[in-house]
Protein backbone atom coordinates (compact mmCIF):
# COMPACT_ATOMS: atom_id res chain seq x y z
CA UNK A 1 0.00 0.00 0.00
CA UNK A 2 1.21 3.49 -0.89
CA UNK A 3 0.53 6.23 1.66
CA UNK A 4 1.24 9.96 1.44
CA UNK A 5 1.71 11.62 4.84
CA UNK A 6 1.19 15.39 5.04
CA UNK A 7 0.13 17.77 7.81
CA UNK A 8 -0.06 21.33 9.09
CA UNK A 9 -1.48 22.95 5.99
CA UNK A 10 -2.63 25.96 8.07
CA UNK A 11 -4.92 27.12 5.28
CA UNK A 12 -5.70 30.80 5.69
CA UNK A 13 -2.42 31.68 7.35
CA UNK A 14 -0.43 34.76 6.40
CA UNK A 15 3.31 35.34 6.74
CA UNK A 16 4.10 38.75 8.22
CA UNK A 17 0.93 40.06 6.48
CA UNK A 18 1.79 38.37 3.19
CA UNK A 19 -1.17 36.36 1.91
CA UNK A 20 -0.14 32.72 1.43
CA UNK A 21 -3.31 31.40 -0.20
CA UNK A 22 -1.80 31.25 -3.69
CA UNK A 23 1.24 29.41 -2.33
CA UNK A 24 -1.04 27.00 -0.47
CA UNK A 25 -3.03 26.43 -3.66
CA UNK A 26 0.23 25.64 -5.47
CA UNK A 27 0.97 23.07 -2.78
CA UNK A 28 -2.44 21.48 -3.34
CA UNK A 29 -1.58 21.23 -7.08
CA UNK A 30 1.71 19.53 -6.17
CA UNK A 31 -0.02 17.19 -3.73
CA UNK A 32 -2.60 16.06 -6.27
CA UNK A 33 0.08 15.56 -8.94
CA UNK A 34 2.18 13.49 -6.52
CA UNK A 35 -0.77 11.32 -5.54
CA UNK A 36 -1.55 10.66 -9.18
CA UNK A 37 2.05 10.11 -10.33
CA UNK A 38 3.00 7.86 -7.40
CA UNK A 39 -0.28 5.93 -7.46
CA UNK A 40 -0.97 6.73 -3.82
CA UNK A 41 -3.73 4.71 -2.20
CA UNK A 42 -4.32 6.76 0.96
CA UNK A 43 -3.52 10.39 1.85
CA UNK A 44 -3.08 11.15 5.55
CA UNK A 45 -3.48 14.74 6.82
CA UNK A 46 -2.26 14.82 10.43
CA UNK A 47 -4.03 17.92 11.72
CA UNK A 48 -3.97 21.72 11.57
CA UNK A 49 -5.82 21.74 8.29
CA UNK A 50 -6.74 25.37 9.00
CA UNK A 51 -4.80 28.05 10.81
CA UNK A 52 -7.59 28.99 13.18
CA UNK A 53 -10.89 27.72 14.50
CA UNK A 54 -12.86 30.14 12.29
CA UNK A 55 -11.01 30.00 8.96
CA UNK A 56 -11.67 32.56 6.21
CA UNK A 57 -14.08 31.48 3.48
CA UNK A 58 -11.38 31.30 0.80
CA UNK A 59 -9.40 28.88 2.98
CA UNK A 60 -12.51 26.69 3.37
CA UNK A 61 -13.01 26.79 -0.40
CA UNK A 62 -9.39 25.69 -0.97
CA UNK A 63 -9.79 22.81 1.48
CA UNK A 64 -12.97 21.71 -0.29
CA UNK A 65 -11.18 21.85 -3.65
CA UNK A 66 -8.19 19.90 -2.29
CA UNK A 67 -10.36 17.08 -0.93
CA UNK A 68 -12.43 16.89 -4.12
CA UNK A 69 -9.35 16.70 -6.34
CA UNK A 70 -7.66 14.12 -4.13
CA UNK A 71 -10.77 11.95 -4.30
CA UNK A 72 -10.82 12.25 -8.09
CA UNK A 73 -7.40 10.56 -8.20
CA UNK A 74 -8.99 7.45 -6.69
CA UNK A 75 -7.12 7.81 -3.39
CA UNK A 76 -8.85 7.78 -0.03
CA UNK A 77 -8.14 10.65 2.37
CA UNK A 78 -8.07 10.58 6.16
CA UNK A 79 -7.86 13.83 8.16
CA UNK A 80 -7.65 14.57 11.86
CA UNK A 81 -8.13 17.90 13.63
CA UNK A 82 -5.13 19.68 15.16
CA UNK A 83 -4.83 22.24 17.93
CA UNK A 84 -5.47 25.09 15.46
CA UNK A 85 -8.67 23.52 14.11
CA UNK A 86 -12.15 23.62 15.55
CA UNK A 87 -12.85 19.92 15.88
CA UNK A 88 -16.62 20.44 15.70
CA UNK A 89 -16.48 22.59 12.59
CA UNK A 90 -13.94 20.45 10.76
CA UNK A 91 -15.92 17.34 11.65
CA UNK A 92 -19.27 18.67 10.45
CA UNK A 93 -20.98 16.18 8.17
CA UNK A 94 -18.27 13.54 8.72
CA UNK A 95 -20.72 10.63 8.56
CA UNK A 96 -22.09 11.85 5.21
CA UNK A 97 -18.69 12.73 3.75
CA UNK A 98 -17.36 9.29 4.70
CA UNK A 99 -19.32 7.71 1.87
CA UNK A 100 -17.23 9.67 -0.64
CA UNK A 101 -13.95 8.23 0.60
CA UNK A 102 -12.92 11.22 2.73
CA UNK A 103 -12.71 10.28 6.39
CA UNK A 104 -12.73 12.99 9.08
CA UNK A 105 -11.61 12.02 12.57
CA UNK A 106 -12.19 14.87 15.02
CA UNK A 107 -13.99 13.12 17.92
CA UNK A 108 -11.56 11.76 20.56
CA UNK A 109 -13.96 8.90 21.38
CA UNK A 110 -13.67 7.61 17.80
CA UNK A 111 -9.86 7.42 17.91
CA UNK A 112 -9.91 3.62 18.25
CA UNK A 113 -12.59 3.12 15.57
CA UNK A 114 -10.52 2.50 12.44
CA UNK A 115 -11.02 3.22 8.78
CA UNK A 116 -10.17 -0.15 7.22
CA UNK A 117 -8.76 -0.08 3.68
CA UNK A 118 -7.38 -3.25 2.07
CA UNK A 119 -6.62 -4.97 5.40
CA UNK A 120 -4.97 -1.87 6.86
CA UNK A 121 -6.65 -0.25 9.86
CA UNK A 122 -6.15 3.55 10.02
CA UNK A 123 -6.70 5.15 13.43
CA UNK A 124 -7.16 8.92 13.56
CA UNK A 125 -6.30 10.42 16.95
CA UNK A 126 -7.21 14.13 16.80
CA UNK A 127 -5.47 16.69 18.96
CA UNK A 128 -6.39 15.78 22.52
CA UNK A 129 -6.90 18.69 24.91
CA UNK A 130 -6.09 17.02 28.26
CA UNK A 131 -8.69 18.97 30.23
CA UNK A 132 -11.49 17.83 27.90
CA UNK A 133 -10.71 14.12 28.01
CA UNK A 134 -9.36 13.74 31.55
CA UNK A 135 -12.67 13.13 33.30
CA UNK A 136 -14.54 11.21 30.55
CA UNK A 137 -11.56 8.89 30.16
CA UNK A 138 -10.86 8.78 33.93
CA UNK A 139 -7.20 9.68 33.46
CA UNK A 140 -4.92 9.71 36.49
CA UNK A 141 -3.32 13.01 35.47
CA UNK A 142 -3.88 15.97 33.20
CA UNK A 143 -1.21 15.66 30.55
CA UNK A 144 -0.83 14.99 26.85
CA UNK A 145 1.12 11.83 27.64
CA UNK A 146 -1.75 10.42 29.71
CA UNK A 147 -4.31 11.25 27.01
CA UNK A 148 -2.24 9.80 24.13
CA UNK A 149 -1.30 6.71 26.13
CA UNK A 150 -4.95 5.99 26.87
CA UNK A 151 -5.92 6.43 23.21
CA UNK A 152 -3.03 4.26 22.00
CA UNK A 153 -3.86 1.51 24.49
CA UNK A 154 -7.36 1.37 23.01
CA UNK A 155 -5.92 1.49 19.49
CA UNK A 156 -3.54 -1.41 20.16
CA UNK A 157 -6.35 -3.47 21.65
CA UNK A 158 -8.42 -3.01 18.49
CA UNK A 159 -5.45 -3.34 16.11
CA UNK A 160 -4.93 -6.93 17.24
CA UNK A 161 -7.91 -7.78 15.01
CA UNK A 162 -6.23 -6.40 11.90
CA UNK A 163 -3.27 -7.32 9.74
CA UNK A 164 -1.72 -3.83 9.70
CA UNK A 165 -2.28 -0.66 11.73
CA UNK A 166 -1.46 2.97 10.92
CA UNK A 167 -2.01 5.89 13.32
CA UNK A 168 -2.47 9.61 12.70
CA UNK A 169 -1.81 11.86 15.72
CA UNK A 170 -1.27 15.54 16.45
CA UNK A 171 1.15 15.93 19.34
CA UNK A 172 4.60 17.04 20.54
CA UNK A 173 6.73 13.91 20.83
CA UNK A 174 9.71 14.14 23.17
CA UNK A 175 12.87 14.88 21.22
CA UNK A 176 11.16 16.72 18.39
CA UNK A 177 12.54 20.09 17.27
CA UNK A 178 10.04 22.94 17.40
CA UNK A 179 9.92 26.18 15.41
CA UNK A 180 8.56 29.65 16.17
CA UNK A 181 5.34 29.14 14.20
CA UNK A 182 3.82 26.37 16.34
CA UNK A 183 1.26 27.32 18.95
CA UNK A 184 2.30 26.24 22.44
CA UNK A 185 0.14 23.40 23.80
CA UNK A 186 1.58 23.14 27.32
CA UNK A 187 -1.09 25.09 29.22
CA UNK A 188 -3.55 22.21 29.06
CA UNK A 189 -1.05 19.88 30.74
CA UNK A 190 2.51 18.69 30.23
CA UNK A 191 3.05 18.95 26.48
CA UNK A 192 5.51 16.20 25.62
CA UNK A 193 4.50 12.65 24.73
CA UNK A 194 7.10 9.84 24.86
CA UNK A 195 7.94 8.06 21.63
CA UNK A 196 7.20 4.75 23.37
CA UNK A 197 3.49 5.69 23.48
CA UNK A 198 3.27 4.85 19.77
CA UNK A 199 4.79 1.37 19.93
CA UNK A 200 3.09 -1.59 18.31
CA UNK A 201 1.80 -0.19 15.01
CA UNK A 202 3.19 -0.21 11.48
CA UNK A 203 3.41 3.56 10.94
CA UNK A 204 2.60 6.77 12.84
CA UNK A 205 1.88 9.94 10.83
CA UNK A 206 2.48 12.87 13.15
CA UNK A 207 1.44 16.49 12.90
CA UNK A 208 2.14 19.64 14.95
CA UNK A 209 5.88 20.27 14.50
CA UNK A 210 6.63 22.18 11.31
CA UNK A 211 9.95 20.61 10.36
CA UNK A 212 10.14 17.14 8.79
CA UNK A 213 11.51 14.74 11.40
CA UNK A 214 12.10 11.03 11.71
CA UNK A 215 11.51 10.10 15.34
CA UNK A 216 12.04 6.44 14.42
CA UNK A 217 11.76 4.34 11.28
CA UNK A 218 8.00 4.15 11.74
CA UNK A 219 7.20 7.43 13.55
CA UNK A 220 7.61 10.64 11.54
CA UNK A 221 6.58 14.27 11.23
CA UNK A 222 5.96 15.47 7.69
CA UNK A 223 6.19 19.11 8.76
CA UNK A 224 4.28 21.99 7.21
CA UNK A 225 4.20 22.34 3.40
CA UNK A 226 5.39 25.98 3.61
CA UNK A 227 7.68 27.91 5.93
CA UNK A 228 5.52 29.78 8.44
CA UNK A 229 8.32 31.46 10.44
CA UNK A 230 11.88 32.63 9.84
CA UNK A 231 13.07 29.90 12.21
CA UNK A 232 12.18 27.48 9.39
CA UNK A 233 14.71 29.01 6.97
CA UNK A 234 16.64 26.23 5.25
CA UNK A 235 14.09 23.50 5.98
CA UNK A 236 13.05 21.26 3.09
CA UNK A 237 9.25 21.15 3.02
CA UNK A 238 7.12 18.33 1.63
CA UNK A 239 5.52 15.01 2.56
CA UNK A 240 6.49 11.41 3.28
CA UNK A 241 5.70 8.77 0.65
CA UNK A 242 5.33 5.56 2.62
CA UNK A 243 5.25 2.08 1.16
CA UNK A 244 3.87 0.05 4.03
CA UNK A 245 6.44 -2.50 5.13
CA UNK A 246 9.16 -1.11 2.85
CA UNK A 247 10.07 2.30 4.27
CA UNK A 248 9.50 5.93 3.30
CA UNK A 249 10.99 8.61 1.08
CA UNK A 250 10.55 12.35 1.32
CA UNK A 251 8.88 14.21 -1.55
CA UNK A 252 9.95 17.90 -1.59
CA UNK A 253 7.25 20.50 -2.16
CA UNK A 254 7.56 23.58 -4.39
CA UNK A 255 9.00 26.69 -2.76
CA UNK A 256 7.02 29.78 -3.81
CA UNK A 257 9.49 32.12 -2.14
CA UNK A 258 12.33 31.04 0.18
CA UNK A 259 12.76 32.62 3.60
CA UNK A 260 16.05 33.78 5.05
CA UNK A 261 17.82 35.82 7.70
CA UNK A 262 20.48 38.49 7.37
CA UNK A 263 22.53 40.12 10.10
CA UNK A 264 25.09 42.91 9.77
CA UNK A 265 25.63 46.61 9.19
CA UNK A 266 23.33 48.27 6.70
CA UNK A 267 26.03 49.43 4.27
CA UNK A 268 27.53 45.95 4.11
CA UNK A 269 24.15 44.35 3.48
CA UNK A 270 23.41 46.83 0.69
CA UNK A 271 26.74 46.43 -1.11
CA UNK A 272 28.19 42.98 -0.44
CA UNK A 273 27.91 40.47 -3.31
CA UNK A 274 27.66 37.71 -0.67
CA UNK A 275 23.97 38.43 -0.31
CA UNK A 276 22.99 38.28 -3.98
CA UNK A 277 21.44 34.84 -3.52
CA UNK A 278 18.76 36.06 -1.13
CA UNK A 279 17.56 39.14 -3.00
CA UNK A 280 14.31 37.38 -3.91
CA UNK A 281 13.76 35.86 -0.41
CA UNK A 282 11.34 36.89 2.29
CA UNK A 283 13.84 38.24 4.80
CA UNK A 284 14.25 38.91 8.48
CA UNK A 285 17.05 41.46 8.90
CA UNK A 286 18.97 42.32 12.06
CA UNK A 287 21.05 45.50 11.80
CA UNK A 288 24.16 45.78 13.99
CA UNK A 289 25.10 49.40 13.24
CA UNK A 290 26.26 51.36 16.34
CA UNK A 291 23.50 53.91 15.65
CA UNK A 292 20.12 53.26 14.11
CA UNK A 293 20.37 54.07 10.36
CA UNK A 294 17.85 56.48 8.87
CA UNK A 295 15.15 55.03 6.60
CA UNK A 296 16.60 51.56 7.08
CA UNK A 297 13.61 49.60 5.79
CA UNK A 298 13.24 51.71 2.65
CA UNK A 299 16.93 51.37 1.86
CA UNK A 300 16.90 47.62 2.48
CA UNK A 301 13.91 47.11 0.22
CA UNK A 302 15.73 48.86 -2.62
CA UNK A 303 17.96 45.78 -2.80
CA UNK A 304 15.84 43.21 -0.92
CA UNK A 305 12.25 44.08 -1.91
CA UNK A 306 10.75 41.28 0.18
CA UNK A 307 12.20 42.30 3.54
CA UNK A 308 9.40 41.68 6.05
CA UNK A 309 10.95 42.01 9.51
CA UNK A 310 13.60 44.41 10.79
CA UNK A 311 15.26 44.75 14.19
CA UNK A 312 18.29 46.55 15.64
CA UNK A 313 21.00 44.99 17.79
CA UNK A 314 24.03 47.33 17.94
CA UNK A 315 27.38 45.57 18.04
CA UNK A 316 28.70 45.22 21.57
CA UNK A 317 25.81 46.88 23.31
CA UNK A 318 22.06 47.02 23.70
CA UNK A 319 19.97 50.05 24.45
CA UNK A 320 18.29 48.21 27.32
CA UNK A 321 17.33 44.61 28.10
CA UNK A 322 17.04 42.18 25.22
CA UNK A 323 13.51 42.19 23.81
CA UNK A 324 11.49 39.15 24.75
CA UNK A 325 10.74 36.75 21.90
CA UNK A 326 6.98 36.32 21.80
CA UNK A 327 6.51 34.02 18.82
CA UNK A 328 6.57 30.37 19.78
CA UNK A 329 6.76 31.02 23.55
CA UNK A 330 4.12 29.67 25.93
CA UNK A 331 1.27 32.14 26.29
CA UNK A 332 1.58 32.16 30.08
CA UNK A 333 5.25 33.19 29.91
CA UNK A 334 4.46 36.10 27.59
CA UNK A 335 1.63 37.25 29.86
CA UNK A 336 3.80 37.01 32.99
CA UNK A 337 6.52 39.03 31.25
CA UNK A 338 3.89 41.70 30.56
CA UNK A 339 2.83 41.75 34.23
CA UNK A 340 6.46 42.14 35.28
CA UNK A 341 7.02 44.97 32.79
CA UNK A 342 3.87 46.89 33.80
CA UNK A 343 4.06 46.36 37.56
CA UNK A 344 7.83 46.50 37.96
CA UNK A 345 7.84 43.19 39.83
CA UNK A 346 6.89 39.57 39.13
CA UNK A 347 3.33 38.36 39.58
CA UNK A 348 2.53 36.79 42.93
CA UNK A 349 1.86 33.08 43.18
CA UNK A 350 -1.88 33.75 43.38
CA UNK A 351 -1.78 36.07 40.36
CA UNK A 352 0.22 33.53 38.34
CA UNK A 353 -2.25 30.74 39.18
CA UNK A 354 -5.19 32.98 38.21
CA UNK A 355 -3.53 33.92 34.92
CA UNK A 356 -2.76 30.31 34.01
CA UNK A 357 -6.32 29.22 34.82
CA UNK A 358 -7.71 32.00 32.64
CA UNK A 359 -5.52 30.96 29.70
CA UNK A 360 -6.45 27.31 30.17
CA UNK A 361 -10.18 28.04 30.32
CA UNK A 362 -9.89 30.17 27.18
CA UNK A 363 -8.12 27.32 25.37
CA UNK A 364 -10.70 24.75 26.48
CA UNK A 365 -13.51 27.07 25.32
CA UNK A 366 -11.79 27.46 21.92
CA UNK A 367 -11.36 23.68 21.63
CA UNK A 368 -15.09 23.22 22.23
CA UNK A 369 -16.08 25.88 19.69
Describe it.
The chain has 369 residues and is of the alpha/beta class. The chain folds into three domains: 2-252, Metallo-dependent phosphatases (Purple Acid Phosphatase, chain A, domain 2, 4-Layer Sandwich); 259-312; 331-367. The protein has ten helices and 19 strands. It has helices at residues 21-37, 57-72, 87-90, 94-97, 130-133, 144-159, 266-271, 296-303, 331-343, 349-367, and strands at residues 2-6, 14-15, 18-19, 42-46, 76-80, 102-105, 115-117, 120-125, 164-170, 172-173, 192-193, 203-207, 213-214, 219-221, 238-243, 247-252, 259-264, 282-287, 307-312. Strands 6-5-4-1-15-16 form a six-stranded mixed sheet. Strands 7-8-9-12-14-13 form a six-stranded mixed sheet, covered by helices on one side. α1 (21-37) packs parallel to α2. The longest helix has 19 residues, at 349-367. The two termini are 36 Å apart. Mean pLDDT is 91; it is low at 319-324.
